[in-house]
Amino acid sequence: MTAPIPISLHVNGERVDAHVLPRLNLADFLREHLHLTGTHVGCEHGVCGACTVRADDEIVRACLMLAVQADGMSIQTIEGLSDSGEVGDLQAAFRDRNALQCGYCTPGMLMAAQDLLRQHPEPSRERIREHLSGNYCRCTGYQAIVDAVEATALSRRGRAA
Amino acid sequence: MKASAFAYARATSVDEALKLLAAHGEKAKLLSGGQSLMPAMNLRLISPELLVDIGGLDELRGIAVTNDVVRIGALTRHVDLLKCPEIAVHAPLLAEAVAHVAHPAIRNRGTLGGSLAHADPAAELPACMLALDATLIVRGGRGERRIVAADFFQGIFQTALSEEELLVAVEFPVRRTNSVHYFYEFARRHGDYAIAGLAAQAIVDAGTIAGLRLAFFAVGDRPVLAGAAGRLINVSITPVLLSDASAALGEEVDASEDQQATAAMRRHLAKVLLVRCISVLLGRPELSVSERAA
Fold first, then answer.
1. N or C: which end of chain A has fewer CB within 10 A?
2. What are the pLDDT digits (tens) for B97-135?
């Protein structure tokens, strides 16, 4: 039973069929099998949030999910959200506000921030901090990240009005 | 790190999962949400030879309220508890506590049953089960057992579950009209494991506590119901009485020491939590002035 197991899933809207070993986690599957290296691997035990992706429309830790568990699911990575333009304004706000320095946490940060903005279009700063509390950034001190998310929420509301 | 190699079987029924557990014993582990199991495997703290994935067993999912009893399937995720209107009405303690469990991405995968079977002494949900006087329903090859929460948790990562059993659901009575709850945990950061915490459920009648279950967690090797609660039932609560109860709590708490806190600090925090809890439950802020004496 340690032999490769067939899986079939959608990644960023494209169907993917593969054979994977049970021990392969979803983050490594995305990075090494599909070469989607925007999903970063930091702590590999669910603490840092760098590997955050969407599975069936909900954010998850890709390091705490096996590729075999993603069988039949629809996975979206930062590449998918970026290419579709879904997070274009959020990315611009991060750049404008210097909400990234080394950039290692940024894909996970964008995934978590976009998840918040989809559920709560008018988040308080406290709520932003709470939703991003599972994503570590060792450069910025978070202030600029919270600013960028808040600014994006404001400008989206302006556009919707 | 990465998990070491293991075999993987996707169970299609509870019976099939039980057969696999019976055949492989301690070499097998059940995989539900994986939010505690996968970190332990990635850190190579454990290396099971077989993972039995029960994630597809819909019969273990869902929240139902019948005849004043709330039943929650073991595979119900933290996010489901958080968003369920019936939990908010019938078990507001649980709804409040779940918000303190890790972070959104973890709560989207982690399950109630997984958290209870894992039995981390610092986890919120085991303590809630004690406070809510829940019964845990366990299935094995020889049928079903019902275990009260106070007997289920037996030590650090230790429960009454045998290697060949599976937790299928929990049940607890719906909230009574005059029942109130309190939840608080001291943690370094939001979503971190608590340094000390309290989940409490009480019946308050005209300013008097008629029933009180105080479940402390992250204090010792398992969540515990405080015997000191008995001193506060059906009496007129004064700062002196509360201070005595707090001292009794300090005596009974078997506090543990680790890199987060000393045993003395945990004992102190437990006493602070008790005083704040009673003050909030009774709506008497003046009582927490005696916190300084705690």
1. C
2. 999 999 999 999 999 999 999 999 999 999 999 999 999
Flag if B8 and A22 touch (Cβ within 8 Å): yes
Task: Please write down the long-range contacts of B140-145, taking CB distance under 8 Å and 24 or more positions apart.
Answer: B140/B18, B140/B164, B140/B165, B140/B166, B141/B18, B141/B19, B141/B22, B144/B168
pTM, rounded to two decimals: 0.95
Please, what is the Cα angle at B223 between B222 and B224, to 5 degrees? 110
Touching check for B6 and chain A: CB below 8 Å?
A: yes
In terms of phi and psi (left: phi > 0; alpha: psi -120 to 50; beta: otherwise), the region of A44 is left
**How many residues are present in chain B?**
294
Say which of A1, A61, A66 has its CB closest to residue B7: A1
Question: Helix, strand, coil proportions of chain A in percent (round to 5)?
Answer: 45, 15, 40
CATH of the domain at A33: 3.10.20.30
Quote the domain boundaries for residue A29. Answer: 5-81
Q: Does B157 touch chain A (CB under 8 A)?
A: no
Nearest CA in chain B to A20: B8
Rounded to whole angstroms, the Cα distance separating B207 from B199 reads: 20
Are A115 and A57 in contact, with CB atoms under 8 Å apart? no
Mean pLDDT value across residues B167-178: 96
How many domains does the structure of chain A reveal?
Answer: 2
- ipTM computed for the complex: 0.96
Residues A91 and A77 occupy one common structural domain: no
User: Quick check: B82 contacting A, CB < 8 Å?
Assistant: no
